[in-house]
């Protein structure tokens, strides 16, 4: 069941225009590559956290009542490990959101889950609660790679989780993978890709491992090891080959690349993730969550990363924010252009310039050079990166910005 969403005119993508991201920070252990806001806990305050995020939503709506009337087209429960949250509390939160906001019919509701057997047993409960898109954090089927990434599951658990998701009648099953891991080979990445498509998912996300501290929100065990010279990552040419083989295997199985790191069957692209790539607005609730709203003026906010501090502030009826940044035309332009160029459909670059008051003419020669040298195509005004251009996405954006 593909989910309804408006088409963004600048990219041609179906994408939610207003969504909600809910961060569930609790994990049983923290993976060595993770820089998200995570709290390791054996006893998770499930009910308290459910009450706290709804209390935060009340505070945000008190500050901006107009948000109540905006059609909410996507909800994403990420983490952390949201599949540690009992389905009764997921249902409580989703019901609370629906009672406070104008939820669109056929809304996309995603939940991230780990593939361990204990999580799979809860899948029917999440489906009954209203979740209609399950995203499994697989990362790899290879025992060596899973060990390097600190993951607790194995390949059999992944297959069991997919089976449980199908039995629970999820219309969309998505899986996430990582390549470029220390000790990983191109052959192993190809084997992962072939095993993934054999499970017939609707959506696959596959990301290169990020270890460098300067691009992370905080130091991780792997970034510290890299800095000390204790970690040897695959050479760049192998990482490029890994990305290429992933594209080839997924494409041959009917999962088409629609964004640098994302593939889907026709009609099953993530409407919520496309929200980020097409300049939509999103409320964010929970520990460490980051939201972006255009009213009363464009701004981005990020919540406290400490679970205990978050709970205290939210329960007291205060906005549990760690920081807030006002976004001017230049910041909005840079994000809209850079995110649009992550999409295979590309972006109407002149319209983006005009929307945010940025000059077109000084950039026209650079666009022509990108096309001439095979880094991009230009059709009906929409600039799209080729595979060669996508491999150097950041460098291309720097030249245009």
Automatic annotation (TrEMBL):
Keyword Iron (UniProt): yes
Cofactor requirements of the protein: [4Fe-4S] cluster
Localization (cell): Cytoplasm
InterPro entries in UniProt: Aldolase_TIM, Coproporphyrinogen-III_oxidase, Elp3/MiaA/NifB-like_rSAM, HemN_C, HemW-like, rSAM, rSAM_sf
PROSITE patterns: RADICAL_SAM
Gene3D superfamilies found in the cross-reference section: Aldolase class I
Residues covered by the Radical SAM core domain: 12-252
Domain of life: Bacteria
A matching Pfam family: Radical_SAM
Primary residence: cytoplasm
Alphabetically ordered keywords of this record: 4Fe-4S, Chaperone, Cytoplasm, Heme, Iron, Iron-sulfur, Metal-binding, S-adenosyl-L-methionine
Family: Belongs to the anaerobic coproporphyrinogen-III oxidase family. HemW subfamily.
NCBIfam families: hemN_rel
PANTHER family (UniProt xref): COPROPORPHYRINIGEN III OXIDASE (PTHR13932), RADICAL S-ADENOSYL METHIONINE DOMAIN-CONTAINING PROTEIN 1, MITOCHONDRIAL (PTHR13932:SF5)
Function: Probably acts as a heme chaperone, transferring heme to an unknown acceptor. Binds one molecule of heme per monomer, possibly covalently. Binds 1 [4Fe-4S] cluster. The cluster is coordinated with 3 cysteines and an exchangeable S-adenosyl-L-methionine.
Name under which the protein is recorded: Heme chaperone HemW
Recorded name of the encoding gene: hemW
């Amino acid at each position: 069941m593909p989910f309804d969403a408006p088409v963004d005119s600048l990219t041609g993508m179906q994408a939610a225009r207003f969504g909600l991201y809910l961060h569930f920070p609790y994990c049983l252990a923290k993976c060595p590559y993770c820089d998200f806001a995570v709290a390791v806990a054996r006893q998770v305050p499930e009910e308290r956290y459910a009450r706290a995020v709804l209390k935060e939503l009340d505070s945000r709506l008190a500050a901006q009542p107009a948000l109540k009337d905006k059609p909410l087209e996507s909800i994403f429960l990420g983490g952390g490990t949201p599949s540690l949250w009992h389905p009764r509390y997921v249902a409580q939160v989703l019901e609370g959101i629906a009672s406070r906001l104008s939820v669109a019919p056929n809304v996309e509701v995603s939940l991230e889950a780990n593939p361990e057997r204990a999580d799979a047993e809860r899948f029917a409960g999440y489906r009954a609660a209203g979740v209609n898109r399950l995203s499994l954090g697989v990362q790899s089927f290879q025992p060596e790679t899973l060990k390097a990434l600190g993951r607790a599951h194995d390949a059999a658990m992944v297959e069991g989780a997919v089976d449980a998701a199908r039995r629970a009648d999820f219309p969309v099953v998505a899986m996430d993978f990582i390549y470029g891991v220390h000790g990983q080979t191109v052959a192993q990445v190809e084997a992962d890709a072939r095993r993934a498509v054999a499970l017939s998912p609707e959506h696959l996300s596959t990301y290169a491992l990020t270890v460098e501290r300067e691009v992370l929100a905080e130091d991780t065990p792997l970034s510290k090891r890299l800095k000390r010279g204790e970690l040897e990552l695959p050479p760049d040419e192998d990482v490029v080959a890994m990305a290429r083989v992933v594209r080839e295997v997924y494409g041959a199985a009917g999962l088409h690349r629609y964004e640098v790191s994302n593939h889907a069957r026709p009609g099953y692209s993530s409407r919520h993730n496309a929200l980020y790539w097409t300049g939509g607005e999103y409320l964010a609730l929970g520990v460490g969550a980051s939201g972006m709203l255009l009213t009363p003026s464009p701004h981005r906010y990020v919540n406290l990363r400490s679970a205990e501090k978050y709970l205290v502030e939210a329960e007291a009826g205060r906005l549990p924010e760690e920081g807030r940044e006002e976004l001017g035309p230049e910041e909005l332009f840079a994000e809209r252009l850079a995110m649009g160029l992550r999409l295979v459909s590309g972006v109407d670059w002149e319209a983006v310039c005009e929307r945010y008051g940025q000059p077109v003419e000084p950039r026209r020669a650079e666009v022509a050079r990108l096309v001439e040298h095979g880094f991009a195509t230009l059709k009906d005004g929409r600039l799209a990166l080729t595979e060669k251009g996508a491999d150097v996405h950041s460098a291309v954006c720097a030249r245009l910005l």
